[in-house]
Each structure stands twice: as structure tokens, then as C-alpha cells.
Design goal:
The protein has 706 residues and is an alpha/beta fold. It folds into three domains: 9-266, 2-enoyl-CoA Hydratase, Chain A, domain 1 (Alpha-Beta Complex), CATH 3.90.226.10; 301-478, Rossmann fold, CATH 3.40.50; 485-703, N-(1-d-carboxylethyl)-l-norvaline Dehydrogenase, domain 2 (Orthogonal Bundle). It is built from 29 helices and 17 strands.
Length: 706
Amino acid sequence: MSAEKSAAVVSQNQGNIAIVLMQNPPVNALSKAVRVGLISEIKAALLDPSIEAIVISSQQALFSGGADISEFSGNDFEPPLPEVLDLIENASKPIVAVLNGPAFGGGLEVALACHYRVTFSANKVGLPEVNLGILPGAGGTQRLPRLAGVETALSMIVSGKPVAASSVKGVFDVLVEDPQELLDKAMAFVQKLIVNGEKIRRTKDLNIDPASAPAELFAQYRQGIAKQARGFFSPERCIQAVEAAVELPLEEGLQRESELFMECMRSPQARAQQHFFFAERAAGHVADFDKATPVREIKKVGIIGAGTMGGGIAMNFANAGIPVVLLELKQEALDKGLAVIRGNYENSAKKGKLSPQDVEERMALLVGATDYQELADVDLVIEAVFEKMEVKKQVFSKLDEVCKAGAILASNTSTLDLNEIAACTSRPQDVIGLHFFSPANVMKLLEVVKGEKTSADVIKTCMQMAKKIRKVAVLVGVCFGFVGNRMIEPYGRESNRLLLEGASPEHVDKIIYDFGMPMGPFTMGDMAGLDIGYFVRQSRHEFISQDPSYCVVANRLVEDGRVGLKVGKGVYLYEPGNRKPIPDPKVLEVAKQEAQKLDIEQREHSEQEILERCIFPLINEGARILEEGIAAKSSDIDVIYVYGYGFPVYRGGPMQYADEIGLDKIYDAMCKYRDELGDYGKMWFEPAPLLKKLAEQGKRFVDYKN
């Protein structure tokens, strides 16, 4: 019954028990080889008269990470996982799942189909398929409610979040506290089953009491998740599948689950979410270094600027256990920054996310300084000062003097020319951009900006360091705004132009919110502060001077002191202590006045025009970025936009969205507005050469290799 060591599934007998072990590194994905192996080994054990029970476990650290989603793009699903689980559930000998590590997706579904389950209390289990735009398709929606109850099953399936095995009551027959004792206690449990002649307990024979899952339960659950499920396709199908588990016998429920699974698989949301799953992983694969490239050690970090951004960046390193020197030239500013950080940590402790000891340990890693000499021994220093080139150059000249040889000098600039910053040092090879997004201790994205002279080992070090501080790093090149802020420029420009042409801020914001963004451009501007964009425009006079209408309403508002939420008025009005925007007719009047000065006719705009004029130029700019090589691949742009700007993941990012609806549609719309909007259209709506080329060839951005 033994198999070759290279097999994905092997068996070994311990007396009258067959132990079937999956071994498909790194995560025991349930690939074709594993499915074939499970069927083969289980059938052999069932036919062996000396075997009285079967254990399914793993030789990897995980029990199983679930389906091999690289198979999703192919057609070879034979044998399908449900066929494996059908064999397990209907087996004539007891089958016990021993979860020696996490079990996710199909891995947990294998365990649910077994007759008994054993694991350790702290082990993690989950059904994360909803994150890929699908639902558990191998009985998870039918078996979990039968074992754990409907409420628990709904929560696990619809959220996709992993939970501790001890919290899933009814699923595990034995929970061991010490993982080291798992195998011994599991084998003792199996022997007891055999000795007692226990009747095989099949999950399919369990029925759900309809009284435990009334219609109101499902209605309340739908209402409770409405906000976070907005725009997604699969959460509602997950709920419908669990409803089927209550209403139908297992065989019919499995059929309904299969139908709903296929509905999800065929949806654009599933294509988008699966694209993004791979895009996030692909972002770490870059051509700028290889396995032989050395990595510099980051044992201590310096951060210049204890404001909102600098403080947030400092927290990332303290959270990862890395000591930080936080520099401010004025003691008062330093004290304030450290107090804000402590306040953030204490708020987390109040919510139960940290212990009081955690707070003190992290604060102990943060040392304040008011003298640049305190940075003499840091391995990495990140500048987070005011976004002005003169200020940045002063800082880097000073760092060049005081920092040790081999220290990485990083700028958190969001728009400025990194090469110009690097040129004011004697070591441009050590200079890199680390563009954190605000709030820096929360946002997952880190744009890693490589300069012309940034060395490969500095790039590799920073990409690896990002993982340590739990960021998703995307490597980009140097241009104004890099990828994220360069693309947001036409988005902001067009929303402001639409306001000038007579569209109301609340109408534009609603259309963009309904598209899936967390908020519209005017709400976003007010929250960030309209003065930020104003200062950027002042520094880009050459770029915008060709267009006299460029953000003129926003400029007027800032000059009138209306800089946004922080002062209670911007594009919208705000009541004290309330972030809810209130439309202000005065803003429409300002827009009307400016339109008259510029001889711009105000008119009605369709929802389609508003959406296309805000989103399509952003995509067009992405095409230019791709062609220029500022981003290495279109999926990198998608990762930046989902994690940095809240672009809906169920659309996969702007470039995936464009690929989904067709580049010809984007190209035709750009040409239409170029031709219809007169001089303004000619100025801003010229399609990018790459967009034109790919649209004419019937190709997608994802097909483009620079």
C-alpha cells in the first residue's frame, strides 16, 4: 500500500489503522495529483481486510490550503473534489481527519466530509472562497451548517475569515491543547472508535432544525453585511447556499451549491478577484534582482518627521519589533508626535487588539531625537517631511553627512523627482523612494520607487522589508506622482471640470460611489484637505498653464479658506464632530461664476458620461505609465489602485476593469470626448498610443509585456 516518495499522497499502516498523508508542498493544494492519490489510497485501505479505520492527515505544516486555483484556468478537473469527498463520506470504514495544521477551503471541506475530526484548539480553519469571488464548491456550504449550526456557518462562509478550531463548536470531536500531543491522542481516539464498534457518523445524515434558522435570521444577516458586501456577487450566493442546507437533503443541497458555484465562477467579479489574488503575489516578482542579489540588514530605522505620516511609518516598524529613532528638530513637535503614537496604541488596547504590555513594548522601541547625529548608526532612514523639493534636498544633504556607509536613504515623497533628491547626495545608489499611504500604520500599500542609480540590493532589501512590516510592495519608476498619484490627477481634474460644466458634487460623488469607490472625488478631496492639491498645482504650473479651467473652482475654495473637513467646510459643509458631507449651493454658484468667466456652457450630464470621464482618463494614464515602463505590468497598477485608493477589488483594479469591458470601449469613448469637448477634449482626451494599439489588435493590458 506504500507509494513512491515523490507521490502527492502516501500511506503508512499502524496496525489496523491506515494513515493517509497528503504531501504536496508548499500548502498541500488539492491538485489533480492529490485528488487522484486520495482516491487511490482510500480505496486500497477500504479493500484491505486488516485495516479497520483510516486517518487522513498531512506531512506538511498545513493540513491543506485548499484548491489549486492555478487549475481554474484549465479544464482538467477530473476527478473533481466532490467525487473524492463522496468516496470519503460513504466509506464503509470510519475515516478520521487529523488536522495537524491550518485547513482552508477545500482542505476544510475534506475534513467536513470525514466521519470524525481531531485537531488542536488554536489551529486555524476557514472557508475563504468568497475572497476569490466564489463559494465553497465541495460541500462546505452544506456540511458546515449541519455540524456547526447555521449562524456560525454563515459567518465563516460569507466573511471568509479564518477562525480558531476551538470556536467552531460541533465540528471537532477531539480538541487537543498541546499540538505535540495531537497524533498520540488522535490515534487513541481512533482505537477507541474501533474497540467500541462505533457506528459511522456521516455528516449527510445530520439534519438542521428549521426552527434554528428562521427566515428572519437570513434577512437580518443580509442586512448586517449589506455595506461590506456592496458590489460583490458571491456573498449573496453563499447565503443562498446555506439556505439550501436548511431546506434540502444533502444530495439536493450539494446540487444547489454546485449551481450557485458555477454562477459565481462565470461572474466578472470572480474573474476580477482571482486576477487580483494573482496580481498581489506577482507584484513581488521583479526583474531588478535575483536570488544571488545580497540583502542589507535592517536592525534599526530612522524616521525624519514625527507628524501624521512619520508617526504612522514609525508604528509599522515598532509593530514588527524593529527599533526606531524618530527625529524632529523641535522638542515640542517630537513630544506631540510620540504622544499621538501612544494614543493610537492605547486606543487599540481599549478595543482589545493589543495588551497594555504590547503598548509599552512598542513605545519602548521608539526613541525620540532632535539631532541628526542620533541617526549615525541606523540601517535605513525614511524622510517624511513637507512635500517641497528644497526641504527634501536639505534633509538628504544632511543625511549624506551623518549616516553610515551602506545605510539606505529613503524618501516618502508622493510626487517629487527621486533622481533629483538622490543627486544631492554622494551615494545615489543608496537612495530609494518608500511612498507610504495615509494613514501609514493602516494602509497596506507601499510604492517602492527605484531611481536611475538605485542599486539592486537596495531594491531587494526594501521589497523584503515591506513584507516584514506587513505591507504589499509594488516597485515603480520615477515620474511625477509615480503610478498612484499620477493616475489620480486626471480623475481629480475631470471631476472638477464636470463641476465647472454644471454637474453637482453630490451627483458626481454618488455615481463614483455606486461604481464601487469608497467615496466620490469631492468627498475624498475634503477629507484629504483641498490645500494639498492646491500646493501640488502650484508646483506644476507649466503642466496646467495650457488649461485655464484647470481646477479653478477648487482653487477658489482654498483661497476662500474652504480647505475641507478639518475646517468644517470645503466642497461640502460639515457640522462639528460629524463627517457627513452637506451639499452647499454656494459651491455651485462659484462654479457658475467661473464657468461664465471662461465662457463654458453649463449643462446636464448623463451618469454614463460622468463615470466615463472620471474613470477612463485614469485608465488611459495607466496605459501611458505601462508603455513608459514606470510600472512593469498592468497587474501592478491594479494592486496600487485597490490597496492605495480603494478601487473595488470586485472590479480587479482599473486595468483589469478595462480588460473586462474591452479596451475598444475605452478607446472609442476617449476619442468621442476628445472630439466632442473642443479644445479641452483635444488637450486631455487623446488616447494613449498603447491603448490605441491594443484596442486595434483586440488585446488586453494583461497581454502587454514591456
